[in-house]
Amino acid sequence: MNLLDIVVATAQMPLVGAAPAGGGLSMLVMPVALIAVMYFLMIRPQMKRQKEHRAMLDKLSKGDEVITSGGIAGTVVGLGDNFVTVEIANGVQVRVQKAAVGNVLPKGTLKSA
Where are the transmembrane segments (predicted)? Predict the structure, then answer.
């Protein structure tokens, strides 16, 4: 047997009693990092959008021009706790849930359209 055979045989032998690669701390860091990334990329922006939508609904008043989530554009003629009455044409009023109001348009947008 030459020296090269001994080195190759020694390199191929499994280590007995060796610690597993990546200790306990590094095993914990990866899931925590993934949760942090998910929070900042998905959860936090969604919460911010919900907060802005709630603030927009709280400021809603009669005469505002709105677009509902279904795509109906009209003018707010009545407000309730949970529902909004929107006039979509002269004398045509629909009642929608307040949460279905998607956007408040600048004044005069519907007349120019």
Answer: 20-41
pLDDT in the model for residue 111: 82
- What tens digit of pLDDT does each residue of 57-89 get? 999 999 999 999 999 999 999 999 999 999 999
For residues 69 and 100, is the Cβ–Cβ distance under 8 A? yes
Cβ-Cβ contacts under 8 Å for 61 (sequence gap 6 or more): 76, 79
Using CB atoms within 10 Å of the CB of residue 84, give its burial: 0 to 12 exposed, 13 to 18 middle, 19+ buried. buried
**Helical residues (DSSP H) of 13-97, grouped into ranges:** 24-38, 44-58
**Residue at 72 is within a domain:** yes
Give the chain's domain count: 2
CA separation for the pair 6, 40 (Å, rounded): 54
Catalogue the E-assigned strands of the chain. 65-68, 73-79, 83-89, 92-97, 101-105
Domain that holds residue 37: 20-59
